[in-house]
Amino acid sequence: MKKLTLILMAVVLGILLTVPAFAFGPGEGRGTGEGIGPGGGRGPDDGKGECHCSKPELWKLNLSDEQKTKIEALQTAHLKEVRPLREKVFDKSVELRRLWLQVNPDKDKITAAQKELRILRDKMEDKATTLRFEIRKVLTPEQNEKLANSHWGRGPGFGPRGSMRGNDRHCPGMEMCP
Fold it and tell me: Taking Cα atoms as reference points, which of 93, 87, 89, 79 lies closest to residue 174?
């Protein structure tokens, strides 16, 4: 009887521990998946690899293969350049949270951490702006006009950039990221 009870409890415990994993069902989840773009399966090519642009606005421009390749190269270089900044922003955000969680938070330390965080975000924003200008150089005048009319970089929501918290739907502080 003890053996049967033990086995039954092990099975019930196993089920209880796995149910939350299945509760979300299939989908994107909160991981670092590709999202929109190549391999993401949400573009006009349904993930078949025909379109290599990260933003739907660029998909609509009928880019040549050469343009797609150049834009991909620009985005890849941008991501490599911005990765250390993103890591610093994350680290500084964690530090700031820890400072606020102290029993007696130090105003000077918090203010200094916030300033550093703003400087890092400004650098990321500047690099995103540079990337957008570089991408525009790859496009023809007609494509640039079409892009300007497509509200490139503005998504649904509130705020000057079109989302509730800046542009955090894909990558914080960046308009373009694969």
Answer: 79
